[in-house]
Amino acid sequence: MKFFIPILAVLLCLQLSSSAQYPNPSIIPQPQEMKVGKVTDNFTIVNNSTLVFISDSSLRPSAEFFINFIKKYYYLDLKLTTIADANRRNVINLFRENAAIESTNPEKYHLDVLSKSISIRSNSATGVFYGIQTLIQLLPPSAKPVPLQIRAVNIIDYPRFAYRGMHLDVSRHFFDVSFVKKYIDYLAMHKLNYFHWHLTDDHGWRIEIKKHPRLTTVGAWRDGSIIGLYPGKGNDGISHGGYYTQAEVKEVIKYAAERYITIIPEIEMPGHSMAVLAAYPELSTTPKLPKKVAETWGIFNKFNNVLLPSEQTFSFLEEVLTEVMALFPSPYVHIGGDECSKIWWKQSAFSQQLIKEKGLKDENGLQSYFIHRIEKFVNSKGKTIIGWDEILDGGLAPNAIVMSWRGEKGGIAAAKQKHKVIMTPENFMYFNHSQFLKDDSLTAARYLPLADVYNYDPVPPILTPAEAKYIWGAQGNLWTEYITNPAKVDYMLFPRLDALSEVLWSPKSKRNFPNFKERLQQQLKRYDMMQIKYSKRYSL
Length: 540
Fold this sequence. Notes:
eight-stranded parallel beta barrel; 23 strands
């Protein structure tokens, strides 16, 4: 008995040491099912470990993504091959199973980690890519441990929602192609699959349109921006602008596609159009008055003119959308539709006459007419429109998808009308608001802590099960009035992006905020390794 207690103590110490060295995986978003194996079954990655993608070239982007990640952050070189060998050790196998097999979710994957091999399998290349993202989170969140030990696990995983989106406003402040690519990598890391690219607004037009060059020579630049929080302390008088050439847009689209992310371009109409009207004032309700690209934030009826619903305007928009739709393979085009200052139509003789001619009730009816016209054109090109929830005003276009931002009311109304809905209510999904009450950094003047994002559920309980099926998913939005550089984007995005990813991917029954915060600690170490400048005061 005298010897038993010291031996027991030694064994306990060894067990605790092993637990400290090989903690349970902290994966975000949390998988559907995960079983943790024995430490003795851990897998080791060393130089010249082999990654195999078997019999399917569509898996090459996933294989190369992982190899490049390992090389960049862990300084190890892996071998890539398409030749399977049952006797090979230290091998990571990527399988695309029979694609003809029906699956309830094409994004589903299986991940198995054993001592001699890792396997990731799915019946789609997309599912394999998500398996790679989970495998990355099984790596130590530091470049120091070499060889790399990966905990033995068995994971079966798939997302809760089909639409998992994140938005970036590049109109208020322009971000170059290299950062947009990095932003897309952030989304891929969190298993998001839609990038909403807010390319136009009052404050700048950001995409080259060859048929209408003044959109970028004039509309892409403003003469200054207000200083500080609205209404501001004067104007900085600094020219700001930039735009993406069509070649650059194609480059970004290709980059996103390799990460299984669909880019949805947004071309704002009929409001939020001051950049357009600065370039082409004849499309406004006051064509003889000169216009400027907006230099202050917000919507002000006195200054924010709107597009005149004339045949000239519709012809212009069709030409713009034709070029945009030719660039973007996405089946969806976002046409805005929000915050249209209808006072301009009320004061416009042409607009009032059109209301009478078309038998419309009022200016809301005129907006509905406008959106219906655009939808008919977009549909004729085989695409579907998405709009902010104001497109419900005056009557919803027949095939439109509603993005509900003014709370959930618009989304609920659209779901009851059997339209797809993307929930993005400002009080839960706008990441330009402060993460804590006293923020020394300039932000939009609201408060959105991490817990509120995490605890949000996109499916309103008021909907019946049949109506709830129209909730396609949700999206976080990042408006950039007060976000002027990439480091500030990181600061506002993280770690709320982690919370969003778990809301959209993981089962609702598994959501647990204290547990999420525990798992988040490993993720923050990974961000340190990747030099992502997240907000370190998120929990206050």
